[in-house]
Amino acid sequence: MGLAGVIPPHLGNLSFLVALGLTNNSFHGPLPQELSRLRRLKAIHFENNNFMGTIPSWFGSFPILQIFTLYGNRFSGFIPAAIFNLSALEIIDLSNNQLSGSIPREIGNLTMVKGIYLDENKFENFRTR
């Protein structure tokens, strides 16, 4: 697409969205809190941008989210434990960021999960093949 800039907070007013894809653009900066209003989301695809800062804990408040991908950004810090309370989550891809610390034990709460991708980060005690 080739879009650039920051995500406008007004995007959070689109309350009937079920999927939000912003893949392969040049968005940057932190994500606006207003996105937390999109409670009907089933899929979030924010791959290959320049988002940075910590992953907001409000991502854990999407009750029917099934796909959550933040691959290829510059997120840092810990994975918020709230994300692992998403009971419908099937795919989580946080690979190729700058996440650190340890992987939360709450990851075991994801009973519907089919794929977890955490490689290419800076986790403690985490190895890839």
Topology of this structure?
Blueprint: E1 4-5, E2 19-21, E3 26-29, E4 43-45, E5 50-53, E6 67-69, E7 74-77, E8 91-93, E9 98-101, E10 115-117, E11 122-123
Parallel strand pairs: 1-3, 2-4, 3-5, 4-6, 5-7, 6-8, 7-9, 8-10, 9-11
Fold and architecture overview:
This protein has 129 residues and is mostly beta strands. It has strands at residues 4-5, 19-21, 26-29, 43-45, 50-53, 67-69, 74-77, 91-93, 98-101, 115-117, 122-123. The chain has a 6-stranded parallel sheet with strand order 1-3-5-7-9-11, with no helix packed on it. A 5-stranded parallel sheet has the order 2-4-6-8-10, with no helix packed on it. The radius of gyration is 14 Å and the shape is globular. The mean pLDDT is 92.
- Count of extended strands: 11
Provide the low-confidence segments as ranges. Answer: none
Radius of gyration: 14 Å
Relative helix content: under 10%
Q: Whole-number average pLDDT?
A: 92
Question: Proportion of β residues?
Answer: 25-35%
Series of secondary-structure elements, N-terminal to C-terminal: EEEEEEEEEEE
What is the overall silhouette?
A: globular
Q: Report how far apart the termini are.
A: 33 Å
Spatial arrangement of strands, main beta sheet: 1-3-5-7-9-11
SSE-based structural type? mainly beta
Major sheet: size, sense and barrel closure?
Answer: 6 strands, parallel
Continuous helix count: 0
